[in-house]
Amino acid sequence: MKKLFGLILLLLSITVNAQVSTAPTIPTASDAITITFNAVGTGLEGYTGDVYAHTGVLTTNSTSQSDWKHVIGSWGNNATQPKLTRLGANSYELVITPNIASFYGSGSEVVTDIALVFRNSAGNAQTNPDIFIKIYANGLNIALTNPSDEAVFNVNDNVNITAESSINANLNLKVNNSTIQTATNATTISSNYTFTSPGNYTIEAVASQNSETKTDVISVFVKTPTQNESIPPNLENGVNINNNGSVTFVLQAPFKNDVFIIGDFNNWSLNAAYQMKKDNDTFWLTVNGLDADTEFAYQYFIDYSLKVADPYAKKILDPDDDPYIPNTTYPNLKAYPTGLATGNVSTFKINPTPYTWQNTTFTKPNKENLIVYEMLIRDFTENDSFIEAMTHLDYLETLGVNAIELMPISEFEGNDSWGYNPSFHGALDKAYGTQNHFKSFVDACHSRGIAVILDVVYNHAFGQSPLAQMYWDSANNKPATNNPWLNPDAKHPFNVGYDFNHESQYTKTFVKQTLKYWIEEFKVDGFRFDLSKGFTQTNNPSNVGAWSSQDNSRIAILQDYANYIWNNVSTDAYLILEHFANNSEETILANYGFMLWGNLNHSFNQNTMGFSTDADISWLSYQNRGWSNPHIVGYMESHDEERLMVRNIAYGNSNGSYNTKQLSTALDRIEAATAIFYSIPGPKMLWQFGELGYDKSINCESNINDSSCRLDRKPVAWTLGYDTNTNRMDVYNVTAKMINLKKQYPSTFNTDNFSMSVSGLLKRVNLYDNVGNLDAVVIANFNVTAQTINPNFPNTGTWYDAFTETSINVTSPTAGITLQPGEYRLYTQTASLNNSKFELSETVKVYPNPTQNTFSINKNINELHIYTTTGKLVKSFKGNFSKGFAFDISTLPQSIYVVKTNSVLETPQAFKIIKL
Q: Where is the Glycosyl hydrolase family 13 catalytic domain (predicted)?
């Protein structure tokens, strides 16, 4: 199998024959083959060091051009991969000897092509696209050796057309089916030909011997001038579906001269009928006569040298990644046009499969009461899919979250990623499912009162992005100085990928249009902007301190994006920034309406471990920062931070028999942190499975200080049984209780009248209800010894603890309360608050889900009924079924079903299950 390269830059689409030549010209599997590589125009042009071949073969068993067989060595391993011989500047040689079977170890398999990528010794510069050398069968063959397929010429160019046969034969050269030269009993033939008019030409070489005939056919194109014409009004960049069934393509491409559309509708060939018109910096073309129910793939061919997908594509096909997406995740994925295109291609369909929204009346939760659940679909589900994530929404609804923030789901490089290596910012990544799957996910969330927020990555783009490819400095391996979107060099010190220039109008247009698309097409409720502090053109990349200083130009950029969204798309869209700039800048942004991430991971972890240094969590309070509104999205954990429990167990403090490294003790201290965390007014965020005390390191499990595993997959909590573990469910229940109290009593838990004492290991939060009379006092002891704390009760009388369901008679507001290590209390003067319990004695689970043949339920069941999503009953089970009984659904077709259960002792339950 071909090696996949996650973040390697795509460069120019160069015709293979311009890169390599072979001796013999028509190689067979039994030949020794000398391959000569010309590096001009590739990522290795001008390179003077050693060049290596990452190489394998295609055989009759290969399923696609990406399905390499018998690959030699591994990428970047210079000891195992063939080294080329340098012949001179930009010229190298590789000898396949004594034959293909011996060189590659292919045995008796029939080899159809040699597959190659040439790379430098460091493995960070290479040829692209992949190079394929056709291997011929023994006997009569013929090949055109000049010009190359898809070559481009000017009118009146005179070209020497040549062909070579493998053995002596009668040879014939044709142009547009007219013979221009013949040769008898020869192995070579040539003729000069002048292209007198623009357009497409077909060149054919024919070899005949006895009754056998072989041909080789190529197409060339003679340039036609681009027409200048004003673009029709009200069109967006990308594909526009017009009311009359036609399609108008729009591409912004300043400094470019000629652009063609190539695709399924014109056999991926240059054709004057598909040459785009030009209006200043924008190319456009309206195409008629396309079948409305066919999905078409296409690319832009720019200045006769570069083929790219549409930067505004809403779906792309990737020849390297798509073969590894399961059909259950993305059913009936359109096949990549193998042999016709290279690199990523865009697709569109005039009449896409419709989706009927079930929830059309969703109201977004208030900002100050937002409880955000940060989710990576890849690690939240066992099969990486929106559909499976939907089966856990009831769990999240019970927990009380009212917003899910999805780590990036726009098209990223590879299929296995956190998503912060974006390539197409307006396309849904197919690795998680179809567009309608995602719409179903959003719809199901809205039906449960849960908003959906997308983590979007507009600080940078990666190399597969057409925005990088269209304007690229191959000599220096970075964006060209005239790139309309990307800076040649990053303007801040922590950039990855290629840095966007947010002062460019091209970037502003790109960001606004793609944000608008996500809201209008998928009804998402807002965005979290990754690395928003990078939206600057003014800072010195080498000066970290300056980068965090107040930057008025950056503020203006962000406010411009907000104004566009709030004034033109969605008046109440959430806009959350991962900013971490100086408080003066964050104050301006917060008061403008943005919410900003508030990272309290380190300080909360000091508390849960029992260390007083850096234990102050007062920065969680918007008032402490001097903000007018509660716009800090505070969190104890995020995707970027180590899990609290990991450090608790690895480094926690102890005193005698009390040891925070002990699992149950460590989990108890997470409960205490949870009580304090949610009691401080303002929106909150938790990282997935934090409510279960997740304790698998963000880094390598064998060494939590080794960050080389940081982006690797992590175990899914469901498979670890965390949601059935009593101690972990205690954390869940405390989290659920605090969240639901915050939602049920907003005048208390979101009050603007509160005080805190949270700098040391003894913590107190006093909440004063300005509407009713539900004042609250929350206290916790994070020391490793018993401590007495002053609760600062607002008045005397009876106070009830919502957790222990005990009461105390307060005779003096400052009378101390002794708490054991890790102990916490939430006091109010309302006994009925104790009835606000959200515990789950045991989470009801259906497993495995998805499944192929059977599933079980962790409860005793009397009846079970299975329905389609449209409500049709398709199967029933009646009787007394013990916990774990295997319900057989092997006869049901692949689909999503609703399972309804009933038992004597349990409330009826309903679940969604996926049948594979």
A: 374-742
